[in-house]
Amino acid sequence: MSLAEVEITPEIVAEHGLTTDEYQIVLNILGRAPNITELGIFSVMWSEHCSYKSSRFWLKTLPTSGPQVIQGPGENAGVIDIGDGDTAVFKIESHNHPSFIEPYQGAATGVGGIMRDVFTMGARPIANLNALRFGDPSHAKTRHLVSGVVAGIGGYGNCMGIPTVGGEVNFDKAYNGNILVNAMTVGLARSDKIFYSKASGIGNPVVYVGSKTGRDGIHGATMASAEFTEDSEEKRPTVQVGDPFTEKLLLEACLELMATDAIVSIQDMGAAGLTSSSVEMADKGGVGIELALDKVPMREEGMTPYELMLSESQERMLMVLKPGREAEAKAIFDKWELDFAVVGRVTDTGNLTLMWHGDLAGEIPVAPLVEASPLYERPWEPTPKAGDVDTSIPADMSMSEALKRLIGSPDLCSRRWIWEQYDHLIGGESVKTPGAADAAIVRLPGQKKALAATTDCTPRYCFAEPETGGAQAVAEAWRNITATGATPLAITNNMNFGNPERPRIMGQFVGCIKGMTAAALALDFPVVSGNVSLYNETNGVAILPTPVIGGVGMIADAALSVGLAIPEAGLSLILIGETKGHLGQSIFMRDLMNRTDGAPPPVDLTAERRNGDCVRQLITGGHVAACHDLSDGGLAVALADMAIAGGVGVTMDAAPSNIALHAWLYGEDQARYLVATKDEAAVLAACEKVGVPAQRVGISFGTALTLPGGDTISVEDLAHTHDAPLPNYMAGASWSA
Amino acid sequence: MKTAITVFPGTNRERDMAAAIEKASGSKPDLIWHGESDLAGYDLIVVPGGFSYGDYLRCGAMAGNSPIMRAVKQQAERGVAVLGVCNGFQVLTETGMLPGVLMRNAGLKFICKMTHIRCERSHAPFTGSLNQGDVIKVAVAHNEGNYFADEDTLDRLEGGGRVVFRYSNAAGLVDATTNLNGSQRNIAGILNESGNVMGMMPHPENAIDALAGGVEGLKMFAGLAGTA
Fold first, then answer.
1. Calpha distance A38→A15 (Å, rounded)
2. How confident is the model at residue A48 (pLDDT cuts 50, 70, 90)?
3. Is A124 touching B (CB cutoff 8 A)?
């Protein structure tokens, strides 16, 4: 029996992840029962991963406009204006489920997918970043997952020749069964050479380029839309295998073709492959597309229309060419030794029409397929308000011992072991490399100006108070860009949550969106692209809500940017922003006092804006030798970071008398920065003039960090304590600070 | 001076190399696609870094058998200066133009960092303004940079003054603690017997800019610029 004759039973419908109600809509749209290929197409198009059916209602509330925005959400990537006819094209995307099942390939293809999204728009990628969450270091799988994910990210990005310049990593037992691998790419394009996915021109050829299609990844999108159970590893065959070499060729070939004017539109084949690319192109253009599936380059024999439409083989693109330009385009792809096949044409039927050796293999009206895509306003309930937390500590607790434990802890220790596996220097434009500054700085080739980029989220804040956590993630990305001297411009977001059918989880999603919206508005930091990953649960246990923010900014002259290393002795360290000593949800309370209750630090967006704008002016005005934002671990950890990076000591001034010493040193009040400066008086005066709280907290001096009261640790000791834990852990040692 | 930079499918540091040579010499190198078989008329041929043919068989193995490498070999035999960097060094060993092999790093991981190399001998045109004992800070970025050759070959290299660079620290110390990838005798760069072919793993082309990577690599290219 051929697949075309497969009888569509309720079991087959259920296996395709469609509910009874959703299947009824399929019947209504077609006016008949679908064949198996058509059912597969509805299944992937209406999966959570492709349709955003649980999240769309709320995503639409995010601010997405601004004078800098050229293209907001809805295309392969967002586009912003960075002046002189240049644009930055960027997006973040998750590859969580595949990375848990097969860490190297899962992470590698995540990186490959996001780069494809960016160069599909006509942009040459110039920077990769990532945001990673792993389980407890003591969990049996964590070391293996860290090792595989990092190698996979490096393996793909290094071969592509795109520097991986930034990222963040957290460890928490909430990710034991669902790690998060979010990859971000930033590219450059000229504003008059941006490519979109809207198909047009009845009769125009539809062309397939890149790798051949195999059976890999079939139903990857539906896998990414279901909870994990213990047998999820049996789904390993649905993880795609990446080939960065082919993608490098595809990048060069596409950019070479894009330099001509032969392309009408282009779309990469990501999740749901040929299905989603053809449907999206047709839908955006309000046209039909007819595909002769037997013309698709195939890697394996005996493939069926069903498999061809659902395969997630990597490194493939679909494009509509201007008529008569096929030979010119083919010559370019021949040169790069890539497959090139005319597989169809644009039609006026409004249908996705699938042909197989001259016979009709399926036909679906595109507009109803897209418009009838389910949209759920899922019930949600808010996270209960957190109470006050007891922040007392033992009277004899040593503040310097606390600092050493914190800077050697899983969340705060040096990430050098990770980023040395990423080629962060290729391109020769990496002005601020990992660990050197709060955001990566990558200069535009041949220009003075540079882009700043960062990824940020504090999941424990989001869990305790989703709205505050959502706002804080946006604010921290804005702050990290500001701390280099760059002006924040726009963000991309990666919403990683549990099962949205559970009201508490949906409430986390809604709260985070609300907080992000408020912060994005207050900071003029609109969302231009993004991705949602739901059902990050295993056996009913959800991850912490993790709305990762990828921020991009610009600085007019890369030479004006600053890092966090204290360059010399004799500088004043000025703390900018108000310190109340908020310890709720701090790393100090969690890691040293085992307290995870209480509310996170409040986010005052007016203060964020005012303080950040002041700091940026001080930096670009040349008053600042080094700058670091205060985040996890507060003042003492920030000072230690700056001292370690510069190899210079700091002697702290006396602590204020109205705040407990541990709250002064380790509290995580927001909207704060530390700057090192020669011009103490000028910095304090500039802050006072705009009503920004500022005070000196120490001077750079000698080779040790001296805490208030005289407690001293050598910078060498600090550096070793900071650097050693991750390599030791990865070499097999249990975690010890 | 006329410079050719070879480009294989998967080469990815050709633009960095071209920028460095242009900065040092004032003239733009030609990027030559791997299918070409004529390299006459060039004063310098550079085989740059990357993942030629994906490095799927063995690093540099496929590129070593490409048409353009036959042309590179011909020109080298005529005395033209040939520089292979990173994947280019791997390709030159695969063609037999340089002895030894580059194995997987001893730590079994890709390594990207700024590191120091000590110049073991001043040798025109490759070492530019560097003198014996000078230390420069350059980038490394490789997974297979662990230089291996048998003891006889190593002794011949040493005896002929053909070891040009070794991994060191800033003070020029060469020992196990400064050997980042397990290379025999800390070797980072070597010459062929006639002295006109050099291979090295580090990337001086990523150390030509005060803001990004520093300028110590320029000391090397200052010499290459004068090759004509």
1. 14
2. confident
3. no
Q: How far apart are CA A23 and CA A35, in angstroms?
A: 12
Query: What local confidence, expressed as pLDDT, does residue A691 receive?
Result: 97
- What amino acid occupies position B43? D
Closest of A386, A388, A409, A405 to residue A397, by C-alpha: A405
Residue A39 has which token pair?
């059912």
Contact A436, A563 (CB under 8 A): yes
Residue boundaries of the structural domains of chain B: 3-224
Phi, psi of A59 (to 5 degrees): -60, -35
pLDDT digits (tens, 9 = 90+) for A560-608: 999 999 999 999 999 999 999 999 999 999 999 999 999 999 999 999 9
Terminal-residue alpha carbon distance, chain A: 63
Neighbours of A301 (CB within 10 A): 5
Low pLDDT (below 50) residues in chain B: 228
Contact check, Cβ <8 Å, B51/A249: no
pTM equals 0.96
Beta-carbon separation of A421 and B110 below 8 A: yes
Q: How many CB atoms lie within 10 A of CB A596?
A: 14
Contact of B192 with B156, CB cutoff 8 Å: no
Helix (H) or strand (E) holding A453: strand A450-456
Q: Least CB-CB distance to A425: which of B19, B141, B211?
A: B141
pLDDT, one tens digit per residue, over B148-174 is: 999 999 999 999 999 999 999 999 999
So what's the ipTM on this one?
A: 0.96
Instruction: Please give the CATH superfamily to which domain B3-224 belongs.
Output: Class I glutamine amidotransferase (GATase) domain (3.40.50.880)
Cis peptide leading into residue A394 (ω within 30°) = no
- Nearest CB to A424: which of B13, B112, B211? B112
List the A704-706 sheet strands across, edge first: A626-629, A673-677, A572-576, A694-700, A650-652, A704-706, A712-714
Mutation for testing the A interface, residue in B36, B90, B211, B221 having most A CBs under 10 Å = B211
